Amino acid sequence: MDALVIGAGVNGLTTAICLAEDGWPVRVVAKDLPHDTTSVVAGALWGPSFQEPMAMTMAWTDQSLLDFTALAEDPRSGVRMARALTVSTMPPGEPPPQARSIPELRACAPDEVPAGFAGGFHALMPLADMPRYLDHLTARLAEAGVRVEQGTVASLDDAAREAPLVVNCTGLGARELGDDSVRPVFGQHVVVTNPGLDLLFMELSTADEWTSYFPHGDRVVCGGVRVPDRWDRTPDSAITDRILARVREREPRLGDAEVIEIVTGLRPDRPAVRVAKERRGTAWCVHNYGHGGNGVSLSWGCAREVAALATELRDEPARRL
Q1: Contacts with 239 (C-beta within 8 Å, 6 or more apart), sequence order
Q2: Which DSSP helix (H) or strand (E) runs through 190?
Q3: Do 189 and 263 touch, CB atoms closer than 8 A?
Q4: Is 12 in contact with 137 (CB distance < 8 Å)?
Q5: Is residue 79 a contact partner of residue 68, using CB atoms and an 8 Å limit?
Q6: Average confidence (pLDDT) over 240-254
Q7: CA nearest 235: which of 187, 267, 192?
Q8: What angle do CA 25, 28, 34 make, to 5 degrees?
Q9: How far apart are the C-alpha atoms of 57 and 99, rounded to whole Å?
C-alpha cells in the first residue's frame, strides 16, 4: 500500500503530507532537494489562478486559501496574512470570478491608486517565506515518518515497479518523463534588505516584465519577469537593473536597500494543470504538475485532490492496490 511521490518542490512536499496524513506509507524521491527547487525562489503569494481547467483551478485555489489561512496562525510555518496592494494599467472594473474569494478585497479610492496605474485593489492575502515554509513542510513530513530522499527516476514505468501508487510531482521534470507540452518559463528575483516594508505590491500585467515586491521579515523579494522557453538559469544583470529601477521608482525606501542575492528559477508551464490518474502496469500513477507560476497558490488544493483520487483507488474493490 506504499505511495512513491516523485519531486520535492512545494507540490511534491504538500502532496506527500496529504497522503501521509491520510494513512499512506509514503516515500519522497527527488532529483533536487527542497532548497534546490524552483519553489524556494518564489515570491510567494497565494492568489487567483487563471489556468485551465478553469473550474478546477478555482476550486483548488479556494482550498489552498483555507489551508494557508490556517497555516498563518502558526508563526513557525513561514506563512502570514499580508496586506496587499495590487494595481493595473487596465481601467478598473468588477473583479473576475477567480478574485472574489480574496479576503478583504476592496477597490482603491482614486487617491490611493499609484501614479501610472488606472486602478487597484487592497486585500489581505497569504504570503509564504519559501525557505522557511519548505522547511516547515519537510518537518511536518518528518513528524509523519517521511523523509525526502535525493535520487532520480528514469521513467514512470520504473517507478511503478517500486510502489503500487506513484505520484508525479516533477514539475518541469515531467517533460523528461514523457510530457513534451511542459516547457520552462524563466523567472528572476532580486532579494534586498528590508528598509521596513510590510505591505506587498503586485502589478497585474500580461507583459513579460512587471513590478512586484514581497516583504519577508528582514528581506524583500523583488520582481518580476517571465522569459518563455529559456532553460539557462544564469542571472541576467540587465534584468536585475530593470527590476531594481522599477521597484525603487515605486517605493523610494528601497533606494538604499542592499542587494542580498539574485535568484532564478524555471516555472513549469503547461496548457493546463494536470491532476489525473493513469494506469501503469499493475500500479497507478497520479499526476500533479504543470502549475506554471501558481505552484504555491494551487498546492494544497491539488494535493488534496491527489489524496482523494488515491483513496478512491485504494478503496475500489475491483482494483485494490
Answers
A1: 188, 209, 225
A2: strand 183-193
A3: yes
A4: no
A5: yes
A6: 97
A7: 187
A8: 140
A9: 12
User: CA gyration radius for the chain?
Assistant: 20
Percent of the chain residues topping a pLDDT of 70: 98
CA distance 30 to 56: 27
State the cell numbers at 68.
494557508
- Please count the other Cβ atoms lying within 10 Å of the Cβ belonging to residue 14: 30
Collapsing DSSP states into helix, strand and coil, what is residue 49?
Answer: coil
Q: Which three cell numbers stand for residue 211?
A: 513590478
Residue 13 has pLDDT above 70, yes or no: yes
Residue 203 is which amino acid?
A: E
Q: Residue 59 corresponds to which cell in the numbers above?
A: 476550486
Measured CA to CA, the distance from residue 1 to residue 20 in angstroms comes to 12
pLDDT band at residue 86, thresholds of 50, 70 and 90? very high
DSSP, collapsed to helix, strand or coil, labels residue 137 as helix
Helix axes 295-315, 10-21, angle to 10 degrees: 40
Compute the average pLDDT of residues 153-173.
96
Q: Which pLDDT does position 228 carry in this prediction?
A: 97
Number of DSSP helices (H) and strands (E) in the chain, helices first? 6, 15
**Single-letter residue type at 216:** H
- The per-residue pLDDT for 89 is 86
Mean pLDDT, rounded, of the chain: 95
Cα 126 to Cα 252: distance, rounded to the nearest angstrom = 25
| Cα 227 from chain centroid (whole Å) | 18
Tell me which residue of 60, 97, 6, 35 sits closest to 294, measured CA to CA. 60
> In whole angstroms, how far apart are CA 233 and each of 9, 124, 211?
17, 32, 20
CA-nearest of 266, 320, 317, 4 to 157 is 4
Q: Tell me the average pLDDT across 127-137.
A: 98
Contacts of 244 by beta carbon, 8 Å cutoff, 6+ apart: 190, 192, 222, 254, 259
Question: Which domains, ranges and CATH numbers included, belong to the chain?
Answer: 3-82+128-182+270-317 (3.40.50.720)
pLDDT digits (tens, 9 = 90+) for 18-50: 999 999 999 999 999 999 999 999 999 999 999
